Amino acid sequence: MREHIYELAIVGAGPAGIATAVESYLQGVRDIILLEKDENHNSTIRKYYKDNKRVDVAWKGQKVELDGNIYFIDGTKETTLDFFDELLKNHSVELRTHVEVTGIEKKDDYFEVHMAGKSIKAKYVVVTIGRMGKPNKPSYKIPPAIRKKVNYTTDDCGSGEKVLVVGGGDSAVEYAVDLSKNNEVAICYRRETFRRANPTNQRDIANAIAHKEVRPILGVNIDGLEATEDGKIRVLFNEIEPEIFDRVIYAIGGTTPSAFLSSSGIKEEDGKPVHNEYYETNVKGLFVAGDITQESGGSIALGLNHGYAIACHIKGCS
Ligand SMILES: Cc1cc2nc3c(=O)[nH]c(=O)nc-3n(C[C@H](O)[C@H](O)[C@H](O)COP(=O)(O)OP(=O)(O)OC[C@H]3O[C@@H](n4cnc5c(N)ncnc54)[C@H](O)[C@@H]3O)c2cc1C
């Protein structure tokens, strides 16, 4: 008996993956499977967004017009997760969690999607695995004695600590402002201003600095970290004297999953997978969407638009 061939398999259940599934459903595709390695959809939002975080549609100051049928508005981490829950519930999409896809193989008229010990077949495959599977890390070595206090999310932060947040984009600014409610916080950025952050975050960080809630360390690079005798972190700045912190949090974006792309035959150019205007890669029938298509991270709205463009292309409606 011939094994089932899904019409569409989507790898990664973040905003771009869910949008691709829902928009395809709305275009009439009925046989869709959404594969997620974590225990639930949207692991980037669950893991990297702090509780009650404000979610801006115009992330990083990029105003994006929504092209498709998904009406996404400003909200919070919690309302955004509820929104995606509802979308999945209302558009019969088969979401399979706890499955990490390891690669995609092109056969004659279908793809084989490989996971640990098993595989499924699909006519079209869309890869929407984002860039936060591997957050960017500094080039210098982190001494083992302080590794637990050097983080990439705010999950382990308590209160009453002296914390250094490293980075100057929206995530770094939001982390610094939020942590300053219960901690002594400094933010270190190699540039002199927070111009990369969106206007709301620029205003928030300016306020926090003006009220001495966050101490700016701007135009400064970090050369390395050392462990002090009492288990704290000595930060070795390039331009200024070293300083000791209880915790250091890097918020410097994520990386392109190059190994995954190349093992699936997807070519990369300038740190991004090669694709056409419909997000189809050099492998016909194999698409990419969401953050993975952007050199330095995208936004929820961009991912939603990618999903719509792919759905339209697959069903020939554009
Ligand atoms: C701290 C922070 C704050 C942000 N705030 C905002 C904001 O306010 N507004 C906004 O628009 N954007 C914001 N962003 C950006 C936004 O979160 C991303 O642009 C968006 O999540 C990208 O969606 P995506 O679907 O491309 O990837 P992701 O959301 O990263 O989803 C990828 C999914 O794929 C899964 N996956 C990964 N590898 C595999 C595999 N091999 N097999 C199966 N599944 C896999 C992951 O577990 C994950 O669930 C923020 C980002 C961060 C880090």
Keywords:
FAD/NAD(P)-binding domain; seven-stranded mixed beta sheet; 318 residues; binds flavin-adenine dinucleotide; 24% helix; alpha/beta
Describe the structure.
This protein is an alpha/beta fold. Helices cover 24% and strands 26% of the residues. The protein is built from seven helices and 19 strands. A hairpin with a 5-residue loop joins β14 (233-237) and β15. α1 runs parallel beside α7. The longest helix is centred in the last third of the chain and has 16 residues, at 300-315. The protein is elongated. The two termini are 36 Å apart. It binds flavin-adenine dinucleotide (FAD).
Entry summary:
The protein is an alpha/beta fold.
| Count of folded domains | 2
Number of helices: 7
Strand share of the residues? Answer: 25-35%
CATH C-level name of the largest domain: Alpha Beta
What is bound: which ligands? flavin-adenine dinucleotide
CATH superfamily of the largest domain: FAD/NAD(P)-binding domain
Mean pLDDT: 94
Query: What percent of the residues sit in helical stretches (DSSP H or I)?
Result: 10-25%
Which helices and strands, and how do they pair?
Layout: E1 5-11, H1 15-26, E2 32-35, H2 43-48, E3 54-55, E4 75-76, H3 77-90, E5 94-96, E6 101-106, E7 111-115, E8 118-127, E9 150-151, E10 162-166, H4 170-179, E11 184-189, H5 199-210, E12 214-218, E13 222-227, E14 233-237, E15 243-245, E16 247-250, H6 258-263, E17 268-269, E18 272-273, E19 286-288, H7 300-315
Parallel strand pairs: 1-2, 1-8, 2-5, 8-19, 9-16, 10-11, 10-16, 11-12
Antiparallel strand pairs: 3-4, 6-7, 7-8, 13-14, 14-15, 17-18
